[in-house]
């Protein structure tokens, strides 16, 4: 292991006949967010569960830097990982501060350290002034932020966040994103599962796309986009509806009514010649817009399906 803080190899989990996850490999590095992107039912939570030790894999291994694994040192392994589960897990009728303390107590933290860390993590997620209030009085976003504080109290190197923006208002979401950026700068390794490609695009340094329990692609965003036939689409609005034969010689051009959709590798390079070729054919251009490829396009190209149902 060079710079990796966690390496998962060949993870597999079946529930009866249904294989939820198979042949999943993942690598985490300090200071990086790994986006685990896939539609509902893809196997994201099952994967996260196997990494944090809540779900026992049928096959495969997870090893931390220094060789620590659940088999060699379960307590040591778990101390290095924090989990923000998909379903919020809090004691609704206990004060927020006590919730954090209970999580810390699970890791056997000394009382003085625990109190200091409790105050630190509550401040970090913007709940310092709500420490005495019960989660039952909190909004969805506040509960999620408290759950993040609970996962961080023991100062883990690795933080797993399973769809942490579900049921969260935009303000809390931005606060969560700011927290994650800060954790990244502090050298933590983060796993962020989501079915929102916008979130993966915004947060992730590297992305693993998972579908039907299998990794279908992984890499930096630029590497994933490079797998597409075109990085960008030009939308050209034209006057009239020319005969398609007239456009036949132009590569990557699809016409729908008075609009041409043109796949291009590089707008700066390809837009000029395209417009010149249209002018030469007597096609009048009324407007032009461009759209870059998204992870949705990558998912579609790899699986033939949309990311969202
Ligand atoms: P995701 O988090 O990507 O939505 P999950 O990991 O929750 O996906 O689920 C992957 C597949 O495994 C789904 O088909 C789901 O129905 C199934 N599954 C997950 N957990 C269980 C379980 N405890 N018992 C039976 N099937 C499960
Ligand atoms: Mg899930």
UniProtKB/TrEMBL annotation:
Keywords: ATP-binding, Cell membrane, Membrane, Nucleotide-binding. It comes from the Bacteria. The keyword Lipoprotein does not apply. Pfam families: ABC_tran. Residues 6-237 form the ABC transporter domain. GO terms for molecular function: ATP binding; ATP hydrolysis activity. InterPro entries: AAA+_ATPase, ABC_transporter-like_ATP-bd, ABC_transporter-like_CS, P-loop_NTPase. PANTHER family: LINEARMYCIN RESISTANCE ATP-BINDING PROTEIN LNRL. This is ABC-2 type transport system ATP-binding protein. It comes from Roseateles saccharophilus.
